[in-house]
Design goal:
Elements: E1 8-15, H1 21-34, E2 40-47, E3 53-55, E4 69-72, E5 81-84, E6 99-100, E7 103-106, H2 117-124, H3 134-141, H4 143-152, E8 160-164, H5 165-170, H6 172-182, E9 187-191, E10 201-203, H7 209-217, E11 222-227, E12 231-240, E13 245-246, E14 250-253, H8 261-265, E15 271-273, H9 280-296, E16 301-310, E17 316-322, H10 332-340, H11 344-363
Parallel strand pairs: 1-2, 1-7
Antiparallel strand pairs: 2-3, 3-4, 4-5, 5-6, 8-11, 9-10, 9-11, 12-13, 12-14, 12-16, 14-15, 16-17
Length: 369
């Protein structure tokens, strides 16, 4: 019970302006089915491709929320109040709030959702939320910054080189030569800040490299090129704040040559093997490396650690830490926790409790001298 209400008022924010908008809607549907209506009063907030927020009517499905009333969350402490917005204006209308929230579950994948921007707004509004804070979200989203910090902490990562899209446009040949000299081929070209394998290409030849670089530059101002290896893809789920826990590892066996967008969300031949068929000592090493990465990259609430296990040498590399993993019922994150002993509804309960715990600890900090 909170502030005299019988149910905790949970705002589920989904959609967004990134290329992962549709994936976010699928996550919202899964979460809505799993949250206990006896414990939570659930309000759906859809962030459109235009960045505007729409509030769904109670009980409305996520797909219908895009046509709801426009609302705004003021960037100042206001008791978690969402206010109606005048048509065509950004100014919130004075008066009774359109909705009152106690905690937010952000499901906005990609840019503007898991890169610290949304978290910053929620911090300014004084509204508890699930997942990493501003710094942790930004670090985990930026593959280049994350790799630099992980390498400094002796967490094994694959060799990579970072490029600016402006430098690519100014000197394409120089960018190509840098990649060939520092990384070689085959290699993966990626936007530094992106998810769901959007904008990523596996490059086999020099001729393919310029096109792959320019394709990645459509999605971010910074790119990374990473050495490609023959690898098994293993993932570990993380849960907690100051004392995080790691799940059993699971393996992704993609239908395609690598785990691209099609293999993740469309190809039914992709298999998730949970738990992964790995020696116990290797599983424990992955769990410990995951926990180290979680602390190094300022994790909170949840994250998913993605590993690459070299098929020939057995070398292990941490590919990335994802602060907002996929949350559909078929996603690896909930499957890993289910195999570890935590059901999907219980996982959501735990995440909400962690968000409130972290907000209480932050609120207790002294702000004045």
């Amino acid at each position: 019970m909170l502030r005299g209400v019988s149910k905790l008022r949970v705002g589920v924010i989904f959609g967004g302006r990134s290329v992962e908008h549709e994936v976010s809607i699928v996550s919202a549907n899964s979460v809505l089915r799993a949250l206990d209506p006896a414990r939570y009063e659930i309000r759906l907030i859809a962030v459109g491709h235009d960045g505007r927020w729409r509030l769904g009517a109670p009980g409305a499905p996520p797909e219908s929320v895009a046509g709801g009333a426009e609302v705004a969350l003021p960037a100042a402490p206001g008791g978690g109040a969402l206010h109606a917005v005048e048509s065509g204006a950004l100014r919130a209308v004075a008066g009774e709030p359109a909705a009152q929230l106690d905690v937010v579950l952000p499901l906005v994948h990609g840019t503007g959702g898991e890169d610290g921007c949304l978290q910053g707004l929620l911090e300014l509004a004084g509204l508890p939320y699930v997942g990493a804070g501003v710094l942790g979200s930004a670090l985990q989203m930026d593959k280049d910054a994350a790799k630099r910090l992980l390498r400094a902490a002796d967490v094994p990562v694959l060799d990579w080189v970072a490029l600016r899209s402006a430098a690519l446009r100014a000197d394409e040949e120089g960018a190509v030569e840098l990649v060939l000299r520092e990384i070689g081929l085959p290699a993966f070209v990626k936007p530094a800040n992106s998810g769901s394998s959007v904008g990523i290409a596996r490059v086999q030849s020099r001729e393919e490299l310029p096109g792959a670089l320019h394709e990645a530059a459509r999605y971010d101002l910074k790119l990374i090129v990473e050495r490609a290896i023959p690898a098994r893809e293993i993932e570990v789920a993380l849960l907690g704040n100051e004392s995080p826990e790691a799940s059993v590892p699971g393996e992704i066996i993609p239908a395609a040559e690598w785990y691209d967008y099609q293999a993740k969300y469309a190809d039914q031949r992709t298999r998730l093997v949970v738990p992964a068929d790995l020696p116990p000592a290797l599983c424990e090493r992955m769990r410990q490396l995951s926990l180290t990465a979680f602390r190094v990259l300022e994790g909170a609430g949840m994250a998913r650690a993605d590993f690459l296990l070299h098929r020939e040498t057995g070398a292990l590399y941490l590919s990335e830490l994802n602060s907002l993993p996929g949350f559909t019922e078929g996603s690896m994150f909930p499957k890993l926790w289910q195999a570890t002993g935590l059901s999907y509804p219980a996982l959501l309960d735990r995440l909400i409790a962690l968000a409130l715990e972290r907000a209480a600890a932050t609120t207790a900090l002294q702000r004045t001298l």
